[in-house]
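Aim 2 progress. For histidine kinase, the working sequence is reproduced below.
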Amino acid sequence: MKKRSITLIIWLMSIALLGVMAMQYYFVRESYKQKSQLFDEAVTASLLTVASKIEKREVYDFVKEQQKIDREKYRKEQAKQKTLAKQLALQKRIEELRIQQYELEQKFKDEEDLLRSRYPLIAYIENSFYETYIKRTRYNDFVTIRILPGEIDRDIQNNVVEVYATKKIPMIPAKDDSTRYLAFLNSYNDINWVVRVLPPRGDLKIAFRIHALEQELALNTAQTLIDSVAVMGGKNKELVTSVAAAEELSKRPFRDRVNFAYLKNEMENELSKRDIYAPFNLEVRDDRSLLVYETWREKEGAKSAARANYSTRLFENDLGRSPGRVTVYFPNKPSIIRDNISYLLLPMIALLALLIGAFAYTLSIIFKQKKISAMKTDFMNNMTHEFKTPVATIMIASESLKDPEISSDERRVNRLANIIYDENVRLGNHIERVLNIARLEKENLKIEKVNVHINEVVSGVLDSMALQLQKANGSLATNMAAVNDLVTGDELHLSNVFFNLVDNAIKYSKDAPDITVKTFNLKNNIVITIADKGMGMTKDQKEKIFDQFYRIPTGNVHNVKGFGLGLSYVNDIVKRLNGKIQVKSEKDKGTIFELSFPLKGANLNGA
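Predicted structure tokens for this construct:
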């Protein structure tokens, strides 16, 4: 593969990796924003609910107290005037009915508050309008909806919705007393709405019964205290007939109107219902912004509060200005949001690590293949040179035999015949070496398992190479000290292993080769060492010598020939025979190859 192609692949993979990282960053950022928005909505809804509960609690407590006072008053009067017993019973019945009516109105109010918290805008529609224009879909086009800007509250534009018909048609009477709203999915120009049905605001039967009892008591011109309390709790100003209770409640000191323990407990409960368990700080202020209650869980809470605070008004339905405000602070909101999306980060980080690992592995494979390609090219060059020399020699010798003068000389013919034979043997050895490596790669090299005496095999190899060593003016020292030398192996391949190692010791010696061969026993193994004092190897070269096609560079010295297959073959044969091979070498000081084979009958697992 060309360098330009590799560079292009690296650039493309880098761009793809950066793109994945950018997409993951965008996804995490958007998830953080979404979780933060959901957190804000949950906290705001909790605050509104708690404020409503505080107001309801005050109303209930006040009603209970007033009922107690009224009952005591009636009991006293009953003792004085037995004639009022019937009126007291009627009054009590009226109060019970009004409480039932109040509870129904409170239920309606809760449903209405829930509806308002779910939708940005809602608009009340009469049941007859619904039956005429909304339910009959063919008349939906006559319905016009306008969203008008309303009052601004804390920099938030509160919009107002107008719903009317552009064409008058005969109205269909209402079929039930349910309360219907148009709920809008957003508060912008793109209007999408759905119809939501709530229960009636009150029970007409109860109202008629109260009216009848009031007429019986001649109370048609005056309303009881329960009406005013119900109006305050239900926040329905259309039903207000008396403001006495509201005035009396608003006159109480603000600090006495709020149960702070109840406030804190309800805030925790509402947040837990929405799966928020983070620590928070509460702050309550009156209508003059004076601090009346606070809880700080952290020393640095004031600094963090400016970043995550939520506020709502208390006793919003008091006459005149709202008397107070409650605020909740979350000192560690960013960490809360991060914890909520942490389950996304781990798989994303794992995926990114996997991509980076795959990227690095792919590059390593590319560079490795490029290196192997270069080594194979070098191998082909060496193989061509090694095959060319004996072929050329055989050709020259063959042509010489055609010469009548040479063919008549028997001595010269024998000499040329020996040359042809030696070169054929040399060529066959080259071919056999390449074929052995091919067989090793295909895992079909036949390995015999017979009894082999290592000392005899080593001695035989040294004897056959004595002439080659003598030609190089080398010296050989041997020490066959191994008493037990019987192993299970293949004699031919073991001979080739020792031949390759001794041949390398001769070829890679700068001067006259000085070779030492030893055998000795170590535990249940026989160890063979072949040492030379040749050119040696660097640490980097030593790590690569068992790779196929790798040849140690010899600079300007060209007498070292070969394919780079010998040590790869040696390493593979040693491993196939359950042996081990180690190399010790220093540059310009020599090399020691140490081979170890288990003796026959030795326990391989314990050796």
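The first strand starts at residue 121 and ends at 125. This observation will guide construct design in the next reporting period.
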